């Protein structure tokens, strides 16, 4: 069998998240054994349909497809196939009806799914609005957002499959009376941190926006109109929130249901956490992605798409994903029944940017969008052909007679076949670009405990060498600049070809998503990345463009917007209340687990031990302890530390705190062993904070041992204006927002999958 060729980064992620471990957490399988475990488990399903099936041949076919890194299934399949948990799907949607029993049943179901490694989507649109009457008790309803907070708190305590936190999608229809509260519910960072939120926008609403008309908000309990609002004002609120911190996203729910393959079975209300998989209540879906960078063949000095190889891979992948449906151990009986009735799969792609570079086609061009359409239409066509072949051998999906395919005379094994899903971890394993996203950086500085070095996007490095201009000095400049577009030493043809996420206009991002969506049965996970200087009007134009192009949803993220929104400003936006704006400064909650370092500093009062910890948004707390307990000095340092922690979690910039503390004198200054003059305990705490920040940013190599897990220097990454500014909670690297989710391209951490 094939010997795997994996990068160091891929091996790290596999060992951390995917490979089987014993009860002590020791890895007990190799990557090759993992892929063999998966291939064997999925191949055995052939026997359910043909007792004479050559399972060994199918196993070898699946193994070769995965170890060649030409196709990889979603993470739960790699993690759980052939192991006791056995839950192989990534996407689930759970119904939430307007009753306390249904609400808490949904919570129980979500806990079971998160425990098994899946992500959940919910529509809270059926819940009666805040303040509405509860007839059974004579009480007052608390509304959808209050119950979302209950779900969020429960999610915090459940760890997906032992390696990942649970992820949720919360959706509310645009005509729900609580839509204003919902749209602003994540104004304060740290609130609903386990949820992505999206507004389900209707055609009726968009028409009212375009005509600047009023729009009715309707109580879902009795279908009565609660009040009318100016549609454009509500739309502007959603735009404002997305501009501020990337949420809420929007889904076009009517467009989704126009493409619902089984309308007689039910109406689609929600999606999975990243929005690419619209599902009926109690449906699940398993996903997989073809690595397009492997679907090429060399022609002379260049490359062209290997269509025969792509066709063969599509057929094998559809076979694989259909088998997963039967190999799966479902967390709920209702999910198993609904999933097997529709047999939805989601075959997508990764490595699209790499493919364009190999073909010599810039991402932000009409030619690139034509390639996207040609590839996706080809995949959709061949996937349907493969599903038709399986239907002849195994039968159509049970709900076929209730589907749109019956009238078309199209016999398929699967109700849906294609999806463009997030590929955060699996694209790192495959050593390719993520999904259909452009890359974020052509070069960056990578740093681990053994040292640091410059990482250069391999195809870009190859191009620089070919032009005879590659040098360490040039790479340093590229890291410093963050873009090559203004560098005279780079040839124009390379500037044109090697565009990064923020070099590309918002319009080109949207047009690329639309090109793929034309031939995707489900939806497309992609982020429209905006520069920090982007305006609210830019976001508005993107949303209108997405509606006109008939996208099923859209996500925008303005660079660093989320990290600047730790300071919360609560606004009551409903004119009917007559309340004034309230500006309040409140600290975000302290997480259960933080990470950081303790720094020892000699002061005139004795040795001071300053512990500095971080959460996912940055430095969040400081503890200070003098070597001798008790006394006035000890109580003062404790009080100072508490106030610093309060300020940090309220969004006060750490550098401002350092400036206030450094230089404060007391009657008993002292000199440290390193020769620094410490003026007071306050001065010492300020210096400790400064030292910690410098260590984090790689400015003090002598002290790097204090800071744990910092694989990439945030100083060099943040200069490229391509990252969120929020550090990865596992390795400290600034997270990227791509495919609709905060993601670390170094260690594979993702908020959503």
Describe the structure.
- The protein is an alpha+beta fold and 753 residues long.
- The chain is 39% helix and 17% strand.
- The protein contains 26 helices and 30 strands.
- Strands 1, 2, 3, 8, 9, 12, 15, 18 and 22 form a nine-stranded mixed sheet that branches.
- α9 (203-211) crosses α10 (231-245) and α21 (506-517) runs parallel beside α22 (536-548).
- The chain is globular.
Please write out the topology.
Elements lengths: L7 H11 L12 H13 L2 H4 L5 H13 L3 E3 L1 H6 L10 E3 L6 H17 L2 E5 L9 E2 L4 E2 L3 H14 L1 E2 L3 E2 L2 E6 L5 H5 L11 E7 L1 H9 L2 E5 L6 E6 H15 L3 E4 H6 L11 E2 L6 E2 L4 E8 L4 E4 L2 E4 L1 H21 L5 H10 L2 E6 L1 H8 L6 H29 L9 H5 L15 H6 L13 E6 L2 E6 L1 H9 L5 H10 L10 H6 L8 H12 L10 E3 L5 H13 L4 E2 L1 E3 L36 E9 L2 E10 L2 E9 L4 H19 L4 H8 L8 E2 L5 E2 L2 H16 L17 H5 L17 E3 L2 E3 L10
Parallel strand pairs: 2-3, 3-8, 8-9, 9-12, 15-18, 21-23
Antiparallel strand pairs: 1-15, 2-15, 4-5, 6-7, 10-11, 12-22, 13-14, 16-17, 19-20, 24-25, 25-26, 27-28, 29-30
Helix pairs in contact: 2-4, 6-7, 9-10, 10-22, 12-15, 15-21, 21-22, 24-25
| Largest sheet entry | 9 strands, mixed
Fraction of helical residues:
25-40%
Distance between the termini: 30 Å
What structural class is derived from the secondary structure elements?
Answer: alpha+beta
């Amino acid at each position: 069998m094939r010997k795997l060729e994996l990068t160091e980064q891929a091996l790290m992620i596999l060992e951390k998240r995917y490979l089987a471990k014993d009860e002590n957490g020791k890895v007990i399988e190799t990557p090759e054994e993992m892929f063999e475990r998966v291939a064997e488990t999925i191949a055995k399903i052939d026997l359910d349909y043909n007792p004479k099936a050559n399972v060994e041949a199918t196993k070898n076919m699946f193994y070769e497809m995965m170890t060649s890194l030409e196709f990889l299934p979603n993470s739960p399949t790699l993690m759980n196939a052939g192991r006791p948990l056995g839950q192989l799907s990534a996407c689930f949607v759970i119904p939430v009806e307007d009753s306390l029993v249904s609400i808490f049943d949904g919570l129980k179901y979500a806990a079971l799914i998160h425990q098994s490694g899946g992500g959940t989507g919910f529509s809270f649109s059926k819940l009666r609005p805040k303040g509405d009457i509860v007839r059974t008790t004579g009480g007052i309803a608390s509304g959808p957002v209050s119950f979302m907070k209950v779900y969020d708190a429960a999610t915090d305590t459940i760890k997906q499959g032992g390696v990942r936190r649970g992820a949720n999608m919360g959706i509310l229809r645009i005509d729900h009376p609580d839509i204003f509260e919902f749209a602003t519910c994540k104004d304060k960072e740290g609130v609903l941190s386990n949820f992505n939120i999206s507004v389900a926008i209707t055609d009726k609403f968009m028409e009212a926006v375009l005509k600047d008309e009023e729009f009715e908000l309707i109580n879902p309990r009795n279908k009565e109109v609660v009040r009318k609002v100016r549609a454009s004002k509500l739309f502007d609120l959603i735009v404002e929130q997305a501009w501020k911190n990337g949420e809420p996203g929007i889904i076009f729910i009517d467009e989704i249901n126009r493409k619902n393959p089984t309308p007689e079975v039910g109406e689609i209300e929600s999606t999975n956490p990243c929005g690419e998989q619209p599902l009926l209540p109690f449906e699940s879906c398993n996903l997989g992605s073809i690595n397009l960078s492997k679907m090429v063949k060399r022609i002379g000095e260049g490359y062209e798409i290997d269509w025969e190889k792509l066709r063969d891979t599509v057929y094998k992948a559809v076979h694989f994903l259909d088998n997963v449906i039967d190999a799966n151990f479902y967390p709920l009986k209702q999910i198993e029944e609904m999933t097997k009735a529709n047999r939805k799969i989601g075959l997508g792609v990764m490595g699209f940017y790499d493919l364009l570079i190999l073909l010599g086609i810039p991402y932000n061009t009409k030619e690139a969008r034509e390639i996207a359409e040609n590839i996706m239409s080809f995949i959709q066509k061949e996937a349907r052909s493969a599903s038709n072949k399986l239907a002849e051998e195994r039968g159509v999906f049970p709900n076929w007679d209730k589907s749109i395919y019956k009238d078309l005379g199209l016999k398929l094994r699967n109700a849906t076949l294609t999806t463009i899903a997030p590929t955060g971890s699996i694209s790192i394993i495959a050593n390719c670009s993520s999904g259909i996203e452009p890359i974020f950086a052509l070069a960056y500085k990578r740093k681990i405990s053994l040292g640091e070095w410059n990482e250069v996007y391999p195809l870009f490095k190859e191009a620089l060498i070919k032009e005879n201009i590659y040098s360490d000095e040039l790479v340093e400049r590229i890291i410093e600049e963050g873009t090559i577009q203004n560098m005279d030493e780079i040839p124009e043809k390379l500037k044109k070809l090697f565009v990064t996420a923020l070099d590309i206009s918002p319009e080109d991002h949207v047009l690329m998503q639309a090109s793929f969506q034309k031939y995707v049965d489900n939806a497309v996970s992609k982020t429209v990345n905006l520069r920090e200087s982007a305006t609210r009007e830019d976001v508005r134009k993107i949303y209108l463009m997405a509606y006109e192009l008939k996208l099923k949803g859209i996500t925008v993220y303005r660079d660093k917007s989320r990290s600047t929104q730790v300071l919360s400003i609560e606004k009551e936006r409903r004119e009917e209340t007559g309340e004034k704006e309230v500006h309040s400064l409140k600290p975000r909650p302290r997480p259960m687990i933080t990470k950081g370092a303790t720094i020892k500093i000699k002061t005139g009062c004795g040795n001071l031990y300053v512990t500095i910890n971080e959460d996912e948004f940055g430095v969040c707390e400081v503890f200070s302890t003098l070597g001798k307990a008790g006394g006035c000095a000890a109580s003062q340092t404790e009080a100072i530390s508490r106030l610093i922690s309060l300020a940090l979690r309220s969004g006060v910039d750490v550098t401002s705190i350092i400036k206030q503390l450094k230089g404060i004198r007391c009657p008993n200054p002292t000199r440290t062993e390193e020769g620094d003059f410490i003026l007071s305990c306050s001065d010492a705490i300020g210096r400790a904070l400064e030292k910690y920040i410098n260590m984090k940013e790689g400015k003090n190599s002598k002290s790097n041992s204090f800071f744990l897990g910092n694989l990439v220097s945030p100083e060099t990454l943040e200069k490229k204006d391509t990252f969120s500014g929020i550090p990865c909670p596992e390795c400290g690297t600034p997270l990227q927002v791509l495919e609709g989710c905060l993601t670390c391209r170094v260690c594979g951490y993702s908020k959503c999958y």
